[in-house]
Amino acid sequence: MNKKISGAMLALAFALAGCAGSPYDIARKHEALRNYEGADAGVVIASAGASNGSRLTSSSVTFHRRNTEDLVSIHFTPTQKPDWETSINKGVVFVKRLPPGEYELRNADGSKLHSGTGYTCTRPLPAVVTFTVHPGDIIYLGRYVTTSSPKDCITVYISNEQQSDVAQARARSPIPAEEVRSYAPATEQRL
User: Fold this and answer.
1) What is the DSSP letter of 19?
2) pTM, whole model, 2 decimals?
3) CA atoms within 13 A on the CB side of 48
4) Local structure of 9: helix, strand or coil
5) d(CA 75, CA 96)
6) What are the C-alpha distances in Å from 95 to residues 5, 32, 51, 116, 172?
7) What residues does 130 pair with on adjacent strands?
8) What are the Cα distances from residue 96, in Å, to 47, 58, 68?
9) Closest of 43, 133, 59 to residue 97, by C-alpha
10) How do residues 133-185 score in pLDDT, each as one tens digit?
11) Under a CB-based contact definition with an 8 Å cutoff, are residues 122 and 134 in contact?
12) According to the model, what pLDDT value does residue 17 have?
């Protein structure tokens, strides 16, 4: 009986602590940057979307703060009310407050659920977007549009739509009228 109790307590301890790749552990890594309210915050604006024919039920792009396990994602589901829409894409604009530090692009995730079946994939991305947050900064990271891909699982297109994305962000959030520093690529990139 003691072995059963010990085994149950051990299982509970692992469940509460989370394993390295468990959903709990990943959520904990995101929590550090979810709602940063420090006076030293910078404001980051980015847009996430999907191509209309992507067949993805959700997609996201994740950044991480260098030398930490802290993560921040921008995500899109086609059921969300879009902030912008073209003939081939639609998406939403995000405004995030982040602590000072150096950040870089880390990975893309995509899910497809259909009639009780589906898949979820995570694809590492090259750190083509890196940025540094300083207190009071206003930073634009670009527009990240995803589509499903038979070869790579998910393909990400990064473009610079700063004027419209920042205007949408300012319409919703109190963002100072100071200069916005762009880290978006000058021309569209496919990853």
Assistant:
1) -
2) 0.80
3) 22
4) helix
5) 12
6) 47, 16, 21, 33, 9
7) 104
8) 11, 20, 18
9) 43
10) 999 999 999 999 998 877 778 889 999 999 999 999 998 888 876 789 999 98
11) no
12) 39
